[in-house]
Design goal:
Keywords: Cytoplasm, Methyltransferase, S-adenosyl-L-methionine, Transferase, tRNA processing. With 246 residues, the chain is α/β, with parallel strands linked by helices. It is built from eight helices and seven strands. α2 packs parallel to α4. Bound molecules: 6-chloroguanine.
């Protein structure tokens, strides 16, 4: 998969050299290209922002540097990328969207600072390729770079061969499947006793049926406590008598 990221803070994206994403890059599974938007601002001060038409606080990112940067990127590859525009006004970034994006060969991210990008940029590229305005949650950040780190990690770990164990995202919270509507439950490892705290007996029983039931009950309890909205919104057929007794 190819990823292009256009930013005025290339150094903010240094974490893409680390851990899972860094290793995927080193193995050639991810081709990440970071572009400095200021290279496309040609006045003396490499200006990328200006005051908003209609007045109001803050600054708006000017269209010309974005146009030059995105035209260059689009012309540099085969076919069409999906352009992901991080904005608190976007549609929610969900596991479903991560799965959808992970199937694309080429993504372009346009993290903005200030009050956002001149609307005409989104319209212009929306007429040419698939453009998605995406938010990572109901809070406001100072810019789109941290959301890009979040989205790239969520997408990269879904690529074939990137996670050590392909089975390890089968039972992720929010993954489709048997526990589709529930959060993941608690996990334990050695030692069997730590600061006087043991391991739930059933996990030592070797009884796979009982272990699966226990895990589901724990997942249900945790979901009921932390995210009751997920249970409200789920298909009632997803729950059995045993779940409902909890
Ligand atoms: Cl994608 N950008 C900014 N600036 N703030 C956010 C966001 C994105 N998602 C949630 N808050």
């Amino acid at each position: 998969m190819r990823l292009d990221i256009v930013t005025i803070f290339p150094e903010y994206l240094e974490p893409l050299n680390v851990s899972l994403v860094g290793k995927a890059r080193a193995r050639g599974q991810l081709d990440v290209r970071i572009h400095d938007l200021r290279d496309c601002a040609h006045d003396k001060h490499n200006t990328v922002d200006d005051t908003p038409y209609g007045g109001g606080p803050g600054m708006v990112m000017k269209p010309e540097p974005w146009g030059e940067a995105l035209d260059g990127i689009l012309a540099s590859g085969e076919g069409e990328p999906v352009i992901v525009v991080p904005t608190p006004s976007g549609a929610p970034f969900t596991q479903q969207l991560a799965v959808e994006l992970s199937a694309k060969p080429w993504l372009v991210f346009t993290p903005a600072r200030y009050e956002g990008i001149d609307r005409r940029v989104i319209e212009e590229y929306g007429d040419r390729v698939d453009v998605r305005e995406v938010s990572i949650g109901d809070y406001v950040l100072a810019g789109g770079e941290a959301p890009v780190l979040v989205m790239v990690e969520a997408v990269a770990r879904l690529l074939p061969g990137v996670l050590g164990n392909a089975a390890s995202h089968q039972d992720d919270s929010f993954a489709p499947g048997a526990m589709a509507d529930l959060l993941e439950g608690p996990v334990y490892t050695k030692p069997p006793e730590w600061r006087g705290r043991g391991i739930p007996e059933v996990l030592l029983s070797g009884h796979h049926g009982k272990i699966a039931r226990w895990r589901r009950d724990e997942a249900f309890r945790r979901t009921d406590r932390n995210r009751p909205d997920l249970i409200e919104r789920a298909d009632p057929a997803a729950f059995d008598k045993h779940d409902r007794a909890i």
